[in-house]
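tool_call: predict_structure(chain=1)
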Amino acid sequence: MVVAFEHLAGRVWLCAGESDPEFVQAGVAVISDERGSVLVDAGQSPSHAREIQVALRAAGLEAPRWLVYTHHHWDHVWGACAWPDVEIIGHVSGAELLRAEATRPWSVRYLREEVLRNRRLGPSYRARALAVDSWDELRVLPPSRVFTDEVELPTGVLARHVGGRHAPDSTVVVVPDSGVMLLGDSWYPPPAHLRTPADEPDLALVGRLLDDDIGWYVSSHSPPLTLDEARAAITG
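tool_result:
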């Protein structure tokens, strides 16, 4: 898959993830202007982050000064260690979870042992094994700056905690002047190894987020939706 940025609206650019769900690769976004770039999510691995960096340069976009985590799941944060000189921003509950994740002995051997203990981890852990080229370079980084409800960056970008069943730290990123809301995975059901047959997408959460002043809604593993498309999706 070619990693490339495409302009969405205003100062928001998107780099889509891998469409094959077996690779569990989330898309990322960059919000760029003369005040500095904000990266939303880090890529699923150091090598993925480096591909994103090449794509940034190819699009003529500035390297980010800030990195916002939409939540703590690996496919959104494992690339963070390859981003130099960024301030990492995330919800306080995700920071606690990532500090615990950082102590785990990530390696192919460890992944295998964990899958043998819990077979439901198989798809996620196989995707991690495919994503990481060198376990020696992987470092799981908690945010260096945490927030509880909402934080506004110097560029006017807002990070707002919404929670939900997918992850307790789920955060949406709002770019008011561009009419864009980046949803992360906030409305998705829980990860596969925690999901029950009763779990469904949280369309009510999306409904609470819809705003007439926001024209675009972007999820990490889905194509962007206009406001009208998002409304149609939640009403069935």
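agent: The longest strand covers residues 64-68. Proceeding to next step.
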